[in-house]
Structure formats: structure tokens, C-alpha cells
Specification:
Blueprint lengths: L1 H16 L13 H10 L11 E7 L2 E8 L1 E3 L4 E2 L6 E2 L5 H13 L26 H5 L8 H8 L9 H9 L16 H15 L3 H13 L5 E2 L14 E2 L15 E2 L2 E2 L6 E2 L13 E3 L1 H7 L13 H5 L18 E5 L2 E10 L2 E8 L4 E7 L6 H12 L33 H7 L1 E5 L4 E8 L2 E5 L5 E8 L2 E4 L2 E8 L2 E9 L2 E8 L4
Antiparallel strand pairs: 1-2, 1-15, 3-4, 5-11, 6-11, 7-10, 8-9, 12-13, 13-14, 14-15, 16-17, 16-23, 17-18, 18-19, 19-20, 20-21, 21-22, 22-23
Helix pairs in contact: 2-11, 3-7, 3-8
Length: 503
């Protein structure tokens, strides 16, 4: 009860923040503060591997910035406050800001149906999808990155805007009735980029440059919609050595079955040809992101109440308010109001966390796939806001029987005959994915032969339902014969595959 009251109080305080002038609360910065932050990133403070850059901003003023580790292993370029990272989903708040500005300028309304700006967007029986639904991840539109993976399309492929839009608009069904649920979908934000383009006559990149980045002086920030563009100071991301790494060819280059590895066994994880924007695609630095912070305390972008608009949370059709606002998650931590968003793509791991009442923001950008930017950020927050928190740190209790560990409870197998499994084996095609999957019987299990070349074992979970991990197949029958299945895979639900072979 107390936590609910405190949470409600913080949302009231959020509103008051935008109505009353607030003095800047100066951070009490000492050498010990810097040393404590150095301790958080000690494992990345090296010249032999990638790491992180961290910054602390006070109302748009960068008070601390430091890099730990290497930004480009090929040339041993160290990380720092000016290093330019791929931000992954941290980019979403900038796409949402472009929508907020475009609405203020009269180019669109949050309640416009998507089809008003993208006529080829389907009309769904479940209801109209609006821009507001896209912004708050309440649209039900299937996630295009998941669809790409299911179709067997590598992220390394060159994917045009037409290809991406075609994949989304081929979907004949939504995950749910718009506005009734919250389910994260990257499709919503690439659609927002397309809406900005069509509503304003300028690409998201050009519009954000003019309306956001230039006014704030963010000279090292852009939406990367040109895969051939040279980006000064660009950081690459890296995965750590896998089992068996460290073997070398005659020329001394480390190599495993997964591809070429940089020195010391690190593997480059970078998609040079991936240039979709809106859901991701933003390049920026710690120094520039501190400048972005100004927009939440000063009228720099010419939109009255900009911060309040960005912090406005979504409301479901049933009246429940969700934590997700406009490219930002609004909540509280240790008794203080907190606004944040994280990101992860390739081996980039990113996080921005803002405490509006304290006017303090922590920026954590990492280029190593094993980094946990959320945990690193909260560790820094605990240092710089130690005197402001009103509640103790969260208790971190390790699970006593983690999934996959000895003693972990496995899902009980559903009894099924080999004959029943054999009847499900066959070739199935999805018109929405334009992909064909082959299922092969293997005793009482099914083997999925995926277009991307790998094979996955499916086990029976319920009658006519097979699955593996987070993916599930529900088979349909006609006259006793399997004719189709509906696929559920995380951010994609009820994707239909129809049988194409005729035994």
C-alpha cells in the first residue's frame, strides 16, 4: 500500500515539475565520487577489450564523462565521452520526440489512424491502429525484427524501407485488439519514422536534425539511414570469445566457426548494412546525450510542455495506465521518480536513466555483449544520488533453481504417439512471411528445419500443441488431417502456416 501511495505521489510531482520553476540541484561531486564510478567499471578499464562509456548530466550539463575499454579493436581506439555508439532502442525516445514536435506543428495527430498517413497499411478486423497505439506499444502490430528472424532473413541482409514496410503490411492479423494490451513492438517505431516522412515531407533523419539535434547542438548525433555513410568516431561492438576461441590460422588471426575474431579472441558484432531507423538507428555519444537532457528542463525545442508530453504514459482501453510513455518508461526507484529506456542490438548495450526531481541523468553506453547497462546504471545512480534516495537499495536475491540448472523443474511432457507426430510432419508455408518451414517426425518429437539452416526440436506440450522455448505451434485439422498451424513466438502471435504437401 505504501509503495502504491508513493508511486501515485511521484506522478503528481511529475506534473508539478512542469508547472513550477525548479532550481538546479547541484551534485556534490568529489574525487571519491569519480573513484567510486571507476570501481563500477573496473572490469572494463582495459586496453585489451571493449567496454563502456558513462556520463552524468545535471540539467543538460555534463559533469562527468569517462570511457573504459576500447571502441575499435582493429586500431585500439579507446572509448570516451565523444565516442559515437549505436544506441539501439534508446533511439525510440527521439522518434517519439519527432512525433510530438510534428503534432505541435500540425502535421499529424496522435489519434490519427496509421492508414491516414500510410494508405497501404492494412485495415484489420480487430480495429484501427492509431499513432498513439504505436507510440505506447499498444497497437498489436507484429514485431518486424521477430518476423525477419522467423522468415530466415539475416539482419546482415540489405533491407530497403520498401522491404521492411512490405513485411509489416503483409501481416493479415494483429497480436490483439489495438489499445487492449501492451506488447513491445519495434514495428511501431519504424512505422512512426515513415509517418514523419510522409506527414512532414522530410525523412526522420532530416526532421530530427532540424528540430532536435541542431537546436541542442548535438553535432555527433544522427539517425543512420545511409548504410554507406562514414561516421567519425564510430564505435564497433564485440562479443567475447566463445568456447574454443583462441585458435589461430597461420596468419595469426583468431577464428572459430562463427566468423573472424579480432585480437584476443573478441568477435566483431556489427551490421554495416542495417540502416532502419525509428526503433533504433540513432548514433550518438555520451557528450551529445547530455545535451539532449536540456530539452527536459528548458524550452529549447519550441514545444510548450515538451517534457510533460514525453512523460505522458499510455492508457489501455480498460482504463489501466501503463508505465510506457513516449519512448520512455516512467516509474520510480528507491523512492524517487525515474524515467529511463534501455537498448540492445548486436553487441551494443545502452541505457539512459533520468531523475527529473533531482535533474540528474546517468548515461551508460557499452560495446560489449556481456555488459548489463541497467545494472551498471543503477550502480552509478546509487553513487551520485546516495543522499537523495529515500529507500534502501533493492535486494538482489539469486534464484535457488535457475532455468536449466540441476534441480530446475522441467515442463512435464505431454504423452503423444509416434503415429500422431507422423501425421503432423510435412511442409508448411506462411504467406505473411513468404517463408516455408519443414517439419520432420522424430519419434514422439518434431524436428523443425528452418529456412535459416538450423534445426530445432519441438516437444508436445498439449494436445496438438508443440513447442520449444518461447516458440509454440498449435495445429489445425480438417477431416483428421493436419492442414495448418498457428505460430506464437514472443512478439508475434497467431501467425498462420498452411500445409502445402499432400500425403
Amino acid at each position: 500500500m505504501r509503495r502504491d501511495v508513493m508511486r501515485s505521489l511521484h506522478y503528481v510531482i511529475f506534473s508539478l515539475l512542469f508547472l513550477l520553476p525548479q532550481p538546479v540541484l547541484a551534485l556534490q561531486w568529489t574525487a571519491e565520487t569519480s573513484q567510486a564510478i571507476d570501481g563500477v567499471f573496473a572490469e572494463y578499464d582495459r586496453t585489451s577489450g571493449p567496454g563502456c562509456a558513462v556520463g552524468v548530466a545535471e540539467a543538460g550539463r555534463l559533469v562527468f564523462a569517462r570511457g573504459y575499454g576500447i571502441g575499435q579493436m582493429d586500431h585500439r581506439i579507446p572509448l570516451g565521452g565523444e565516442s559515437v555508439f549505436y544506441l539501439a532502442s534508446v533511439s525510440k525516445q527521439f522518434a517519439a520526440a519527432a512525433i510530438v514536435i510534428a503534432e505541435h506543428e500540425g502535421h499529424l495527430s496522435m489519434d490519427d489512424p496509421v492508414s491516414a498517413h500510410i494508405p497501404e497499411f492494412p485495415t484489420y478486423a480487430q480495429g484501427a491502429v492509431t499513432i498513439r497505439h504505436l507510440v505506447h506499444h499498444t497497437s498489436g502490430v507484429r514485431d518486424y525484427l521477430t518476423l525477419m528472424r522467423l522468415a530466415g532473413t539475416p539482419y546482415e541482409n540489405i533491407l530497403s524501407d520498401e522491404d521492411m514496410l512490405g513485411l509489416i503490411t503483409r501481416q493479415r492479423e494483429l497480436n490483439f485488439v489495438p489499445g487492449t494490451e501492451h506488447l513491445y513492438s519495434n514495428s511501431g517505431y519504424v512505422l512512426m519514422a515513415e509517418i514523419v516522412k510522409r506527414a512532414t515531407g522530410r525523412s526522420l533523419r532530416a526532421y530530427a536534425d532540424e528540430k532536435i539535434f541542431r537546436p541542442l547542438g548535438m553535432s555527433n548525433t544522427h539517425f543512420h539511414d545511409d548504410r554507406l555513410q562514414v561516421v567519425p568516431g564510430r564505435v564497433f561492438s564485440y562479443d567475447p570469445p566463445a568456447a574454443g576461441a583462441g585458435r589461430t590460422d597461420a596468419d595469426g588471426r583468431g577464428r572459430t566457426g562463427g566468423g573472424w575474431r579480432a585480437g584476443h579472441g573478441w568477435r566483431t558484432s556489427y551490421l554495416i548494412d542495417f540502416d532502419k531507423v525509428g526503433d533504433g538507428g540513432l548514433y550518438s555519444s555520451v557528450a551529445d546525450l547530455a545535451k539532449w537532457d536540456r530539452a527536459f528542463y528548458e524550452d529549447v525545442l519550441g514545444v510548450p510542455g515538451f517534457a510533460e508530453r514525453m512523460y505522458r504514459r499510455g492508457v489501455l482501453a480498460g482504463g489501466d495506465t501503463i508505465a510506457y510513455a513516449r519512448g520512455l518508461s516512467v516509474g520510480e526507484r528507491r523512492g524517487l521518480a525515474r524515467v529511463s529506456h534501455g537498448g540492445g542490438f548486436m553487441a551494443f548495450r545502452t541505457m539512459i536513466a533520468r531523475y527529473p526531481e533531482q535533474r540528474t541523468t546517468v548515461i551508460t553506453l557499452c560495446n560489449v555483449g556481456t555488459a548489463n547497462p541497467g545494472a551498471l546504471s543503477t550502480a552509478v545512480e546509487d553513487i551520485v544520488l546516495a543522499s537523495a534516495f529515500t529507500e534502501p537499495p533493492e535486494e538482489r536475491v539469486a534464484p535457488t533453481s535457475p532455468a536449466g540448472a540441476p534441480g530446475a523443474a522441467d515442463e512435464p511432457a505431454f504423452a503423444v504417439s509416434e503415429a500422431a507426430v507422423q501425421a503432423l510432419a510435412g511442409t508448411y508455408h506462411s504467406r505473411e512471411l513468404d517463408a516455408t518451414w519443414r517439419l520432420e517426425a522424430d519419434g514422439t518429437q518434431l524436428l523443425l528445419h528452418h529456412p535459416r539452416g538450423d534445426t530445432e526440436t519441438l516437444t508436445a506440450r498439449r494436445e496438438d500443441v508443440f513447442g520449444s522455448g518461447g516458440i509454440e505451434f498449435a495445429f489445425e485439422h480438417d477431416d483428421g488431417r493436419a492442414v495448418a498451424f498457428l505460430l506464437a513466438a514472443g512478439r508475434v502471435r497467431n501467425l498462420r502456416f498452411e500445409r502445402t504437401d499432400h500425403p
